[in-house]
Amino acid sequence: MSESHSESAPPVYIIMGRAREGGVGTPEADIPVNILLRAPDEDSAVRAALNALASQGFVEADLDQIGIILEEPDDPTFESAYADAMGGEVAVIAYRE
Q: Which residues of 67-80 are buried (b: 16+ CB within 10 A; e: fewer)?
């Protein structure tokens, strides 16, 4: 299989976790999230993910797993987010009930 990124381009990371909206001490439930983005390393990816969550109104986050996506996903949930990440954006998928 060929990888969808070149050696010079940063990889597309996927970060999975839970985030919470609202103020400190409010009873909002945790919302499962996936974040897709390009970054030069894991630390940069985590910082960018936390900044993106904060800009969308999340006040707390527990990021549980991080990985690298090696090829374009065929799951419709991730296709658009992957395209955004390839374009340099941070894509946040929040699974609200």
A: eebeeeeeeeebee
